[in-house]
Design goal:
With 319 residues, this protein is an alpha/beta fold. 51% of the residues lie in helices and 12% in strands. It is elongated.
């Protein structure tokens, strides 16, 4: 059994509930977009474009979707408005497929080396430390030995919060004094994890974006120091984004992608917003797969992203 596969029975219900606001918003807007129309024409497509943009799918991704639907309409000659929901579902699924978002029910750690190292980036307030804590809990529940590294040494609250999560989950947190070199914390964390035969290491980093050069240099230094302990580290650079901020999450994603390579996305706080379309847009624009989505406060409410389940919850199982 792969990682996180042990509570999949609860996953769909949580996903449906978490995306309810987005689903309701999209369906209400779609209904208005096709009101009084029998077939998909230019007016419907113009209205659909507005629906997608106001659902935080993003302008570029929206135009890509509209272009694909236009091609289908031109090819099929006649497309009824009743088919629009199904077509939208298919095109969004295809976009997520192109961006390597998978349908995996679980995630297996690589068997050729350990520990598996996840470097977590993101601005303050997006749920970065909470996401790390939930990930640590889920890995531990799956029987894995986990170490956390408190490399956000510029903010006392960040270290304290991670320590609290470590105590709550029951995993060690490697830390140093406030203002210490983040790379030194990363080095100590990996060294300790390696010596104690850990399976997973998750490193928290500073969430500052006011100076891109400093951030880029800091992340590069952390990576370089990691490689002195584990040549393949980090295995993953995960960007955490707050889905409820919509277009602001887009901008954060672009800024982080400009200073470091991002290999996966975790999009949080989707349960309290109607901006779930941001999941599709950010993944499409960055060409980076969404790996986790946050749908509530509970430990199990951080889910491995499954494109099929996501689209089904967004548009209805029988769309």
């Amino acid at each position: 059994m792969g990682i996180f596969g042990f509570f999949n029975k609860e996953k769909k219900q949580t996903l449906d509930k978490g995306l309810e606001k987005t689903k309701q918003s999209v369906f209400d807007k779609l209904a208005r977009a096709v009101a009084g129309k029998d077939k998909v024409d230019d007016d419907v497509l113009d209205n659909l474009e507005e629906v997608l943009i106001t659902s935080d799918v993003g302008v570029d991704t929206t135009l890509k979707i509209i272009e694909r639907i236009e091609e289908r309409v031109a090819r099929d000659k006649y497309v009824s408005t009743s088919e629009l929901n199904t077509i939208l579902r298919e095109e969004i699924m295809e976009l997520l497929t192109e961006n390597n978002s998978s349908d995996n029910e679980s995630w297996d750690l690589p068997s050729d080396h350990k520990p598996y190292v996840i470097l977590v980036v993101g601005v303050n307030g997006v749920g970065k430390t909470t996401t790390i804590g939930k990930l640590a809990w889920q890995f531990k529940e799956a029987g894995k030995k986990v170490y956390l590294g408190a490399a956000d040494t510029f903010r006392a609250a960040a270290v304290e919060q991670l320590v609290i999560w470590g105590e709550r989950v029951g995993v060690p947190v490697i830390k140093q004094q406030m203002g210490s070199d983040p790379a030194s914390v990363a080095f100590d964390t990996l060294s300790s994890a390696k010596a104690n035969n850990a399976d997973v290491v998750i490193i928290d980093t500073a969430g500052r974006l006011h100076n891109k050069v400093n951030l880029m240099n800091e992340l590069k230094k952390i990576k370089d120091v990691m490689k002195k302990v584990l040549p393949e580290a980090p295995d993953e650079v995960m960007l955490v984004l707050d889905g409820s901020t919509g277009q602001n999450a887009f901008e954060q994603a672009k800024q982080f992608a400009a200073v470091t390579q991002i290999t996966s996305l975790a999009i949080t706080k989707l349960d309290g917003t109607a901006k779930g379309g941001v999941v599709v847009g950010i993944s499409d624009q960055l060409k980076v797969p969404v790996k986790y989505i946050g749908l509530g406060e509970g430990m199990k409410d951080l889910q491995l992203f499954n494109r099929k389940e996501f689209v089904e919850s967004l548009f209805g199982d029988n769309a």
